[in-house]
Design a protein that fits this description.
Elements (H helix, E strand, L loop, with lengths): L1 H14 L13 E6 L4 H13 L1 H6 L4 E6 L7 H6 L5 E3 L5 H11 L17 E8 L10 H5 L3 E2 L2 H13 L4 E6 L15 H9 L6 E5 L8 H9 L6 E3 L7 H6 L6 H14 L4 E8 L6 H14 L3 E6 L7 H5 L6 H24 L5 E10 L2 E5 L5 E4 L9 E9 L4 E5 L1
Parallel strand pairs: 1-2, 2-3, 4-6, 6-7, 8-9, 9-10, 13-15
Antiparallel strand pairs: 4-5, 11-12, 11-14, 12-13, 14-15
The structure holds iron/sulfur cluster.
The site of iron/sulfur cluster (SF4) has 10 residues, from helix 6.
Length: about 400
């Protein structure tokens, strides 16, 4: 989400005639886009902001803007802590900076926010719903990003058409809870309706979406993924914890059994689907036995990727106010290691089975002189060949596997 927001703001600033420079100290304007979903991320943002102070003292004309989740509805405390910051902007709200540039720097900002979109590349992100209504007890997002607000289908289709003219072939539709897209729009249209509309755009080759919530992934979405040729068969479905009591204190709204039943349905209905997940270890009160339920889920379902994190308290959340972060750090670390070791074995095996198989790969670019792209299941694949173009779709036979990526050659 933050990457998409940064790209959009960059597009608006380019409309004003500004251009990107790779040095915070020399830039006339610095925008720090922050993620505070983890305490570490917030600490890093504070460090970066503090490091900007000397350059503001040397050049008082420099503009410093703080954007993203670190900025809540009230900015009094931030203003006190960082008096040298000129502008504070909540996620997706670019107006404060644009107005500042108009009022204090003489820019003609009329229309600069119209048609802002991500920087052109082969694969790009499109935010379709902002905020979250779920209030999971560990999560700060609903407080910082607000309640769910969906963009209209028309708006998203127009943006996609504009992006394809710039060479984009793959879009990833983004939302903190992407499956609840549309519930706040007139006419009760949902993510499946959006998929059908986007699938009609000729030049788009692939449509992906992130992140799903088990309670909102209804049958129409599952059927659309299976029906539509451009919607890719890869779903990130966080389970967060495997134990029902922990899930309850997390306020996730489903049980282990319900989650497993949903996975079974998805696997049954969507051929060749791959699944990834998010998981927190060491949540308040999680016992060794309860943690075992998470490990069992990983071992039973066999995800292609697990994004795991040790729980850390976020000020202002329900867990911060009402629960105790009582699992010792070394226990959290040990549980994380167990998850990672188990997952590495699982994905090593999954990927080994892909040896000698052929996949359609959309080439995204070069890394260290090797072309790379992804298949529909979002597997990162490097190629032996050099006669390739960015944006090309090629059939690739896998000749080497590892837990983290595959390697292959064109056929
Ligand atoms: S659904 Fe996701 S974004 Fe929303 S509160 Fe829960 S963890 Fe946070």
């Amino acid at each position: 989400m933050n990457k998409a927001d940064s790209d959009r703001l960059e597009s608006a600033l380019k409309n004003l005639g500004l251009s990107y420079i790779d040095s915070r100290n020399e830039a006339d304007l610095v925008v720090l886009n922050t993620c505070v979903v983890r305490q570490n991320a917030e600490n890093k943002a504070v460090g970066t902001l503090t490091s900007l102070k000397p350059s503001k003292i040397n050049n008082p004309e420099k503009v410093i803007a703080l954007m993203g989740c670190m900025v809540g509805p009230k900015t009094d405390n931030l203003q006190k802590q960082f008096p040298y910051v000129d502008v504070f902007m909540q996620p997706q709200q670019f107006d404060p900076l644009i107005n500042f540039l108009s009022e204090n720097k003489g820019f003609d900002t009329d229309g600069c926010l119209a048609n802002v979109t991500a920087a052109p590349s082969i694969a790009t992100f499109i935010p379709i719903i902002h905020g979250c209504d779920k209030f999971c007890s560990f999560c700060i997002i609903p407080y910082r990003r607000g309640r769910e607000t969906s963009r209209t289908i028309e708006d998203i289709v127009n943006e996609t058409k504009m992006l394809v003219q710039r060479g984009v072939k793959e879009i990833t539709l983004l939302g903190q809870n992407v499956d609840s897209y549309g519930h706040d729009l007139a006419g009760s249209r949902n993510l499946a309706d959006l998929f059908y509309e986007l699938n009609e755009i000729n030049e788009i080759e692939r449509i992906r979406f992130l992140t799903s919530h088990p309670n909102d992934m209804d049958d129409s979405i599952i059927e659309a993924i299976n029906d539509l040729d451009k919607v890719c068969e890869n779903i990130n479905l966080p389970f967060q914890a495997g134990n029902n009591d922990v899930l309850k204190t997390m306020r996730r709204g489903y049980t282990n059994e319900e989650y497993r039943a949903l996975i079974d349905k998805i696997k049954y209905k969507i051929s060749n689907v791959t699944l990834t997940t998010d998981l927190i270890v060491g949540f308040c009160g999680e016992t060794d036995k309860q943690f075992q339920d998470s490990l069992n889920l990983i071992e039973d379902i066999k995800f292609d990727k697990v994004h795991s994190a040790a729980y850390s308290t976020r000020t202002g959340t329900i867990a911060d106010r009402k629960m105790v972060d009582d699992v010792p750090d070394d226990v959290k670390k040990d549980r994380l290691t167990q998850i990672n070791e188990s997952q590495e074995k699982i994905v090593t095996k999954i990927n080994k089975n892909l040896l000698n198989q052929t996949f359609e790969v959309l080439i995204e670019g070069k890394k260290e002189d090797k072309w790379f792209g992804r298949n529909r299941n979002d597997k990162l694949i490097f190629l032996d060949d050099s006669d390739i173009l960015s944006g090309e779709t090629v059939n690739v036979k896998i000749n080497k596997t590892s837990p983290w990526y595959l390697n292959g050659a064109k056929i």
